[in-house]
Request: fold
Amino acid sequence: MNKNDAAHLFLRVILGLTFFIHGVSKFQGGIGNTAGFFDSLGIPGFMAYIVAGIELIGGLAVILGLGTRIVSVLFAVIMAGAIFTAKLPAGFLGNGQAAGYELDLALLAMSVYLACADRTVLSMDNVIFNKKGK
Reply:
């Protein structure tokens, strides 16, 4: 394992854990409430279930390094959607009443990196597909 593999693993685990916890939060807080919030933004409420599912299951998959590229693309789409539908009006740091999009932008950047990066030796994809390194 080299330092790039270790950094990639660290980034992957943090991104996966962040999305997993957000997915759990959506279900624990009442997915109906999240659906109502989506409706208030003009997004069909059923999308809350899809987003929460991607965050929950995708978060675990990314932590394990399973389907990282595909899930990261889905995460990037979710973050772009969040920025443009909910966060952009509040500005980068927020306006005191609503959170800004700085965290969403960081998660978007992490997702894009993992979607584009080569798989590493420290992933389930590597174990399953028996490929070493890049």
Remarks:
- The longest helix spans residues 3-28.
- The CA atoms of residues 88 and 101 lie 6 Å apart.
